[in-house]
Amino acid sequence: MDAYDKDPAAGQGQVPGPGPDGGAAPEETGATGTGTTGTGANVTGANVTGANVTGTTGTGATDGSAVGETVAAPPAPAPAPEPRTGVAALSPRYQIGAVVALAVVAVAVCAHLGLVFLHVAPSNTLTKQHGAAVDEWVFPEFEQNWKLFAPNPLQQNVSVQVRAEVSTADGGIRTTGWYDLSAEDGRAIAGNPLPSHTRQNELRRAWDFFVATHDSEDRPVGLRGSLSETYLRRIALLRLDRNDAAGPGGVVERVQYRSRTTNVAPPSWSGEKVSGRPIVRELPWWSVAAETGGARTEAAGAAGREGGAA
After folding, report:
1. What is the DSSP string of 240-269?
2. What torsion do the CA atoms of 166, 167, 168, 170 make, to the nearest 10 degrees?
3. Using CA atoms, how far apart are residues 249 and 179, in angstroms rounded to an integer?
4. What are phi and psi of 103, to 5 degrees?
5. 227, 141 in Cβ contact below 8 A?
6. What was the pLDDT predicted at 242?
7. 60-117 pLDDT, tens digit each
8. How far is CA 121 from the centre of its chain?
9. What is the pTM of this model?
10. CB-based contacts of 62: which residues, under 8 Å, 6+ apart?
11. Is residue 119 pLDDT above 80, yes or no?
């Protein structure tokens, strides 16, 4: 049995007291020393940080002192990365495609806004040099006006109607009744919290465009007058097709417009007097052969197929 077993305090680095004669006691070494085999006897503190614990383990020395040894716990595992969403989740090739598409859309929107701004802006150097290009882009679909803020806003109800001359499948010609296009738009808008821009403004703006570019004899004034007629013919064909005016195998050959304008009655407290008699304006017949060329060819082909089968 060694000295550590005989004296428990030996492994703790304690030094014996003075000798019997009052002098200093001799230093014990070897078998009489304070322990040479004691390891891990004393722990001199521990630091706790999160999930890591770092401890200090004492190692006995021959002179009774303790030498510290630091032991570090393994680090905690790193959290898993969050999954990517949106454009970042696409592959690099598709990310480039998305960026290019967004850039093209942004450029187109900026160009459109710039042209519309030049159209409504006062005359300047750009409009004088590029006025034809601006008008070509704006008219007729994107025309702007400020009648809502004019000193004298519109005070009339204008009803636009159209009828068609149709060639039937058996070779005959018939004339349809009048279709009230303004009333159709009114029924589509009434009670609709989000009415379409087409229902609200397409027909109204097209008719205003026509009236502004024609004289009292319904003759076009300049190139814009011819453009307004083409625009009205296109609208008429779309609306007549929606109402199935031609019928099975029929083709629209000509269309005719008319308008019915009625003054809005002034308020009761106003002394203004206006006529309540409606004003009817009837336009001449317009041929739509250029717009219905494809439909006419398709109808002729169907008739030929039916004749061959017979």
Report:
1. HHHTT-S-TT-EEEEEEEEEEEEEPPPPTT
2. 160
3. 20
4. -65, -40
5. no
6. 93
7. 444 544 455 566 777 777 777 777 777 777 788 888 888 899 999 999 999 999 988 8
8. 28
9. 0.52
10. 29, 33, 34, 36
11. yes
